[in-house]
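WARN no homologs supplied; continuing
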Amino acid sequence: MKNILVPIGTSPDASETLQYAVDFATDFGAEVYVMEVFNVMSKAGTLANVSEIVAESGKERLKGVIAQIDTKQIDIKIASFKGDLVDGLLEIDNELGIDLIILAPRSNDIQEEVYLGPTSGKIIKQTNIPTLVVPKGTKYKPFGSILVAFRSGILKRKRILNSLITISEKHRSKVNLLLVKTPGYTDDDLKINTALMDISSHLTITENATTYLGVLEHFQSKHPDLLCVFRRKRGFFKKLWEKSTILKSEFSVPIPVLILSTKKD
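OK structure emitted
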């Protein structure tokens, strides 16, 4: 894991997410790039070191966010773009090779009904980059236990699991698999990818109407430090992906969520 991207919006808690990313990156020896989320009419991408963007419009606020955290001697760089958010992400990914995006849900407040807002929801929905959603206020610590939930054990490529494998090996995590048999499942869905089996210590098979309901049923008994799910066309977020905004009534867990994308599925 070499490059981590942190999209920064206007949230007053942005420094918390960036601190988590820096702590995470320090543990994994990765570089951190901060992306300011903004939109203008033209499209152009540039990369610049923090010290080189003082005069650029809008970057002073980013510098202020960076100044609030302990950078731990990591040279945080700015990955800036102009134009559509997703186009910018793809542009940055093509230039740098982003291994992981780290972002926060919209709010932890139980009075706030939105879990992922339009921007974070759009990033997860429309990109194929592994994303770690970190609840606000979460301090970085090793993931001792990981729950991997899915409705089909079929994976087109082993590299889809790269982020999960890297994290589990680094933290020596106990990986529990949760295979949720949903209506219409096939025998092939029950064939679990060997790479996934190799890193796991336990497999639970359950039957539920959706993968999400399966997670809700087993979440408390597994006590995971990290939930890992797949962004498939027919998977965990099937209904949630129909729009960018995701409500807490539809999905919310108090731990980090690693989302691995399988757009070819």
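Residues 14-28 form the longest helix (15 residues).
OK
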